[in-house]
Amino acid sequence: MARGRRSVLVFLCAFWFQMFQRAESHGSMYEPPSRNSQGMSLLAPTCPGGACQWYNQGCAIGCPEITGLQTGCEKPVEPSLKDGEDDELLQYKDDGYGNPTIDHPWRFPGKSPVADACGITAGYIEPEGQLDPPPGFSTGASGRELPKLLDQTVWVAGSVVEVAWAMAANHGGGYQYRLCPVNEELSEECFQKTPLEFVGEDQWIQFGNGYDPGNRIQIKARRVSGKKVVPENSTWTMNPIPGCAVTGGRARTKCSKPTFSAPADDRFWPYADGTSKGIFGYSGGYCFGNVTKKPSAACTLDEYKNASFDFGIVDRVKVPDLPEGDYVLSWRWDCEMTKQIWSNCADVTIKHSGKNTKPFSPINGCTACCTGICSKCKECREKKTGECASCWEPLPWWGGRDFWTPRAKAIQCLGREAEDGGPGKYMPGDPLEPAWSPGCSKCWASKDGCEKYTREFEGVIEKKSWGSWTFVTMVVLAVAAAVAGALLLVKSRR
Ligand SMILES: *[C@@H]1O[C@H](CO)[C@@H](O)[C@H](O)[C@H]1NC(C)=O
Ligand SMILES: *[C@@H]1O[C@H](CO)[C@@H](O)[C@H](O)[C@H]1NC(C)=O
Ligand SMILES: *[C@@H]1O[C@H](CO)[C@@H](O)[C@H](O)[C@H]1NC(C)=O
């Protein structure tokens, strides 16, 4: 009897999980631009080119591996972020469906396993992934195998640089940036060897669709370090944007109150429902949901535009003293509300002298056309049939599964370019038809459109370390001493 009841309960839980757990978090690193975006600008900064569909689903602290949509492992470890002690860093008692968050990734930052430190499309392989791969991919593609971005970002060892990410759906938690040499296996172990140090106590909410350093709000960062995180003594930063106090705000549920005191609460912002001041909400995720099941989850384009976060989260990090060469930067966002870890990878070249790439400077954006999802279409400009047909058809979001509300134009490799042959423009709230193009005609037309592209440089933000000043001083003194010595010598000879 007890056993029978238990299996019914297990069945019900599994059923509940299958029906409702397709929770959408979604976020992307966009400075430096990620391989996952393939240089595309559609939905930047929250999900450029579908970069926010690369993640790990079914992550629990201390479990040996990720479990996709199945329930987690039997014996997760105790959380390091404890109720009472760490309330400043926590905001969700449950996941919005009554399940406790105690073994979710943010409860012990860095402690959950991932299957791919650069993300997996739709979170895991079939049938355990969610059903939401980005345009041009099927479920279960590996982020580690994505082609390098053609756009090159240069960082000088020892300098301080700005990095940024943005969210398409807000599930709290926190994040870290890590480096691994490009020629090593891009494993979680490799990335965990070199976490980047955050610099200063502040961070910024940056507007201008995330890209305008002249339009940002400075806020105090909440950070955690020491034994509470993996790697031990590294630092994680909390996602500073509060979620919605009731069920997170998913599937168009009202978002009236923030889960903790919201930044910029001197005024109302469009992201929530206008009841409370401050920046908070669920972002565009407010408009995702199973519309077969819940028709009221379907948003108008206006609602989608309002809910979407048109800003990014900027931090300063120190570039470690590593040998010169090419590295991969992995951004890892451990969620609190869901069992999900979002990861994107970017390409960074470390040098020992010279200038840093200017953060938020434009990219040429040709990777998708030259080595990515549209590269196979190069010979299709005059041909629209056979193997070329797919190049002239929209690649829909989420495999075209119609139970999700549509939320962005489909990507179409050819035929939807802007007038100059470059990428089209689209902002949340614009009409969804016709499809958007990454601008391959322009990339292929120019002789070096598919060559490596070095982004704009800037003056190094903070190059002077005490060490280098000491060195300069010593050289100056040595030169002065030599000149004085020579003069004395000349004088005494006379
Ligand atoms: C972390 O820092 C503490 C305090 O400085 C030190 O005692 C401990 O050995 C460090 N742990 C690791 C793994 O480096
Ligand atoms: C969008 O936000 C603006 C400004 O907060 C508000 O006036 C408008 O009613 C909102 N539109 C919708 C559809 O919620
Ligand atoms: C969406 O809802 C329908 C109807 O309830 C259901 O059959 C389908 O499995 C749901 N899809 C997902 C991905 O949950």
List keywords for this structure.
494 residues; alpha+beta; six-stranded antiparallel sheet; 6 helices; disordered N terminus; binds 2-acetamido-2-deoxy-beta-D-glucopyranose
Tell me what you see in this structure.
The protein contains 6 helices and 17 strands. With 494 residues, it is α+β, with helices and mostly antiparallel strands. It has a domain at 23-351. The strands form 3 sheets. Strands 2, 3, 4, 6, 10, 11, 13, 14 and 16 form a 9-stranded mixed β-sheet that branches. It is globular, with a radius of gyration of 24 Å. The chain starts with a helix and ends with a helix. Residues 1-22 and 460-468 have low confidence and may be disordered. Bound molecules: 2-acetamido-2-deoxy-beta-D-glucopyranose (NAG) (3 copies). One 2-acetamido-2-deoxy-beta-D-glucopyranose is lined by residues 232-233.
